[in-house]
Each structure stands twice: as C-alpha cells, then as structure tokens.
Structure prediction request, 852 residues.
Amino acid sequence: MKTLLKNVTVIPMTKKEYFFQGDILIDDKKIAYVGPSYQGDADITKDCSSFIALPSFVNAHTHLAMTLMRNYKDSQENLQAWLAEIFPIEDKLNEDDIYYGSLNGLAEMIKSGTTTFADMYFQQWKTIEAVKKAGVRGCISVTFFGDEAETDRRINYNYKRIVEEKNGDDLIICHSAPHAIYTCTKETYQKVAKFSKDNGLYINTHLSETQKEVDDCIKQTGLRPAEYLDSIGVFDTPTYVAHGVFFSDEELKILKRKNVSVVHNPSSNCKLASGICPISHYKKMGINVALGTDGASSNNNLSMIKEMRLAAMLSTVSTMKPASITPYEILEMATINGAKALGLADKIGTLEVGKDADIVLINKNIAEMTPLNNIFSALVFSMPDRAVDSVYCQGKQLLEDGKLLTIDEEDVIKKINKQWEDILRR
Amino acid sequence: MKTLLKNVTVIPMTKKEYFFQGDILIDDKKIAYVGPSYQGDADITKDCSSFIALPSFVNAHTHLAMTLMRNYKDSQENLQAWLAEIFPIEDKLNEDDIYYGSLNGLAEMIKSGTTTFADMYFQQWKTIEAVKKAGVRGCISVTFFGDEAETDRRINYNYKRIVEEKNGDDLIICHSAPHAIYTCTKETYQKVAKFSKDNGLYINTHLSETQKEVDDCIKQTGLRPAEYLDSIGVFDTPTYVAHGVFFSDEELKILKRKNVSVVHNPSSNCKLASGICPISHYKKMGINVALGTDGASSNNNLSMIKEMRLAAMLSTVSTMKPASITPYEILEMATINGAKALGLADKIGTLEVGKDADIVLINKNIAEMTPLNNIFSALVFSMPDRAVDSVYCQGKQLLEDGKLLTIDEEDVIKKINKQWEDILRR
Prediction:
C-alpha cells in the first residue's frame, strides 16, 4: 500500500533549521520517498498543502498507566511526599487498571503527535496489550525495585511475561529499568546491568532528580549519583537517565564518555519542585538531551507539545538568554534525540528514505499559527494540541482529522473512570 | 431568549474551591439562574453533562493586533533588542493590518475561552470594529507614547476616534495606556492621569518589566518604578500594571494602598528573558494579581489556558513550593482577578445571577482530563485548548463544538497572510 503525502511542508530533522515544500511517499511500513514533487504512482494521494510533516514525537520518559492517578493529590510538598501518596495506590493496581490506564495515555499521546514512548511501570504485559491495540511503538522496561532476590524474581517472571506478550512484534522494544538509586540496592543495579548487557536491553533509570537524592547519595557512597552508577559499572550497558536536574560537570563528562542520554522532564520537575534542568549547559557539554512527559500524575498530561513549550520557556528564563536553546533544538529533543536515547535512531526520529513511516501532520492553517513566520518558533511556542491532524506509526494511520482510528476514546474514558472508582474503594 | 445549560459542573468562582452539579439559565444577556436543577421554562435546553462551566477568561494584558508579528524575529537577546525589531514594523501598519491582526487574535482568544481582554495598541478604532464583529468584550486603551504635544494629539484625535467607534456599545470599554516609563515623559503620565480621572478611564501601563527598567528609573529619578509613578500622582486614578516582575516590598505596599492590580505575563517574561514574577509573594502582600498573554509576538499566542499552566509551573519551581499558588488561585487570576483589575467585577468574572452571561464550557470527557480527580488541577495542568467546547459573551454564543460562530477563520487567515506579505514589502 502506497500513500502519497502531497505538497507538504517537510521538516525532515536531518539538518539544522531545514525545511522544504515537497512530497513524502509511505510504502507499507517505510518512508520510500522524501523530496520535491514525486512522479511515481500511489494508492492514496492526500493533499497536504495545509500541513507540516515532522517525525512523530518520541516521549523518552513516562509511566504510562499513571494516567489513572492524574490530578490525584498532586500538590504535595516535594517528590518524596508525593511518592508517599502514590505508592499505596500502586500497590492496589490490577491488570485491568494497567490496561485501561495505558490505553487512556496512548489516546492522549497519539492525539498530541507521539508514537514512540519509553515506559517504566508494573505488570507491563498489559501495557503491551494496549500498545498493540493502539498501534504505536513502546520501549517497555522490566522495572526493578529493591534487593537482589526481588530482582531475580522480576527477571524470572516479569521479563518472561513481557517477552511473551511482545511475541516478536518489532514495535515492542524491551528495556530494563532499575527505578532509582534510592529504591534499588547496588547489587540490584549490578545484576540488572549484567542481565541487560547479556540480553541487549537498554537501561532506563531515574537519576539526580532532586537535591535530596544527590545529598543522600554523597552521604551514603561518597559519590554523586552519576559517579556512583558509573563506579558500579552500570554505564557499560547503554543507558538513558530521566530528570538529571543536578549533574556536576564531572558527572556530565562521565555521561558524555559513556554516551548516556539525559531525558528532560520539565513539567514534572516544576510540579514536584525538583528544579530546572540546565539543558543548554548539558548540550554544550556534548550530552544527548531528549524530552519526556514523566507520568500523567506529575504533569498532569502526556503532551510533548506542552513539554516542548515549557522546556523552551524554562531554558530562556533560567539562563536569561532567549537563544540558549533554539526552537529547532527543542524539536530535535522531541524527535531525533529521543530516538538516539532509546537506541532507535536507525529506525525513527527523522524523515528519511528507509526509515519507518512515523509521521505527524500538523495543520498550519489555524488562527493560532498565523502568520507562520518562523516555522520552528511556531511549532514550539504557538502550536496548540488541536493542530495535530494526522499521525502515522510504521505506516499505519492512527489519527485522522484529530480523531483516533485505533482507540475508542469514549469507551476508554468510561472504563478508566470505573477502574479508578474501584481502586479508591479497594 | 432563554438558554438553559442543564446538568453542568459549575465552578462559579465565588468561593474557594467550590463547585457543584447544576443548571445555569442565560436570559438574553444575563445569568438569570445558577444552582441545582432549574424548574422554569427555557427556549433552548442544552445537555451539559460533559461540561464544566467557568466564567470565561479575562486576558488582562495584550496587544491584540500583534498577531501580525507572531513568530517574527522572536528570539532576540532581551526586551530592548526585540523592541528594536518590532518598532520599525509597527511604524508601517495601516488600518487593514490592525483590523485583520485583531480579528485573528480574537479568533484565537475565543477558541481558548477568553471573552474579555485589555488591549494596548494603535489605530484601535479598527480593533473595535473587529471586537464588535467577534462579539467579545474589549477594554480598549488610548495608547500614549512620547511627550506632552504627542499626548495632546492622541487625546484630541485617537480618543475621539475610539469613542466614535465605540458608539455607546457597552462591550467596548475605554481605558488609557501610557506605554511605559521609558517611552513616556513625566508630563505625559501626569496629563494622561488627569485626563483619565476626568473621563472615568482606568490606566493600563507596563511597569517594572525588566531589571534594566528598574535600574534606569532609579538612575533617572532616584525612585523605583512604582514609587516614581506614585510620586507623580498616577495611582490616584485606578490603574493596572503589566509584568511587574521586580517590585520591592515598599512598592508592593504602595500598590496595595492605591489598589493597583498587577497583570502577570509569564510566557512573555520567559520568552524575553525578563524574569519570573514572584506572584505568590505579591498575593501574600495583598495585591490583586491578574493574568495576561501579552502580545502574540512575545508569547507566541493568546491562550489563557497555556498562560495558566505556565504561571502555576513557574510559581512552584521558583519558590520550590508546590502549594505556593493553588490551581484554584490560578483560575481566580484568569477570571475574577482580571475582572477586578479592569474595573468589571460587577459585570463579569464569576457565575452569579445578575452578571453578564460570559461563560466557557469545557469538555471534561476527553482522555486528557480523565480521570478528573481534582477539578482545579485538571483545568490548570491537564486541559488542552481543544477542551473548549462553547463560549458565550453577554449571552451570545461565539463558539460551539470548538467552531467559531462569528468569525470566518479561514478567511481571516487568508487576509492576514496577505496583509503580512504586504507589510514586509512596504
């Protein structure tokens, strides 16, 4: 099946601040052509003269099923106080909760242009079921908490369940996620690192999210968080770390040397009063900075559009330099840098022939984006969520005219409200 | 004509964190009933069980026609460098530019739930024409720049044109706007203050937007900006000031005593690297803090929804206290506090019998707002622009199912693009 996106404003994200008017041919799962007017045949030709085509967004850090706890006790004093509210709820979650919580989050992500996400959560065989239904791409981590015995249990049971549910589907990518240095022992990190290396899994972990975490780590190990994980060999397996608000230059040098990506989560870092991550400095130090929403319960949604705008605003006001990060660099964070962080840069993150057709079409003919002027500023600062018209993942269309094609939103809303009422009663 | 909004989740904004399920009756221009199930008759009954009703938003500081310069040279070093790019463009604007620039901004504002705004700009008889077409409520300022002679010219010509165009329409409210202390002389401020007092006009001015403005003011007058305006008698006329990022406690005491409102513009203050306004401190000092988008060229849009979210995020991360401003207080800033700032609290800003029917209906049955849990958090942190379903101003419906009823958006987009091309050629 060949679909021709005709006369579209293409931002391929392949070179700095580059865009052009042209055509994109989707052939089955792949991008078969990107360039000026395409002369060959196609099964479907779509007039895209109102649209901007971008690689669809990569949400490089979230906890998908946490849409269940959206706006639940969300104005706590800090991360620790908030986790104290959340952990008891999480202990009660069953497989149906995870399924509908995930599906709700996927609805939200597709509507705002995201087709790839990195998830860290529980009972994720149910998340995989939802991901398959939605038709997106998920980096699903086996999540680790606690000590070695618990780690063994999760390797033997959770990893097995996830691989079974993946069942060879190349849109499901297995990663492993030791939760954080304050919830996992040194032995857990080391065991997970070895297990991950042996099985070719990327490591996804929270790191340096709060000043308290840094202070506690120094007190307990004599090292700062990234120094500590490096000292115990974790970074010898490909790793991406979420938050990373407080890295020292010494830590950044380690991350650079070990090719560790940092996933910036601006909404969550604001909402939980963690701090502002100095991304322009990290970029100067050569770090690959990606972007993520974190879970919907500390955000309180999963829109990369909102996340891009906030990332740009915070960088400017915290450095007092409007050019500290350009809008184009923000778009990179939300696309190709995310793909790099998750080890998927050969498949997604740019619009190039041979890559998977993961594409978002954005309607530029709306009051909010008129006049367009600087197209990159328009996408980062002006774009409302409603501008997202169509979304493709691996060539399959998931959104058309802002309407979901693979998820019955009304039904999911009913189900999740029912599950949530039930959780509160348990 | 009586319209009954049936079975709606009402947030009247009359008392702290209060909401209920009930009915609202719109009778012609006014709210005739707000409460539990209404028993009388109505011409139209609308099932609102999916909706939250709020007083529609008050954008207490903008430069409406600046939608023309949206995303135009918008990553300058600071306010001064940006103004140096903008002023030459403004010199070229004609009446058609102002009309279509305004209409485009009004389309955007209505779509995001705003029906009242405070405008400071030029040739605003054309803005008034657009406001009348759109059907919203505009506080339109006679804008002053420069010395006394220029002030006289603007009083004699611009004010007259604005009053003529208003032509008795009570949705058009005339204010007066000396631009800033760095563009207007002392004599201009004093003349404008007297003229405003004599004619019952509120004063709208930029104040304490950047550290440079504060430093220059101290150098030139020995006083900080609010002390200076107070010393020359400006605050004896009702005044609201935009930005107000750097007020000292002494200045805040003056503002409190003189009942001067501060309009917070978080996007613009970030984008232009002005700084973060400490609104939680201002509120503790008893200041009425309202919210505004500033012009679309330093934002880069006019959505109070985006502005509320950013205001909340910045307050938390800059104070490191998630409870520094509650979501409910953010909603107050966007509704009743704006009404107070503009002298309209007897007419709008809450949902109460006898007030004008300025109402926004927000669709809560969408993935992004499910589960709802804390309704105030949901509105401030989760709500996408697309959640706005219907908007009424003085009883007239301006938006239905997200579609504009009084503005032909497609036509405006064509016209503004044409005007803008023309401006760049002039």
Summary: The two ends of chain A are 48 Å apart (CA to CA).
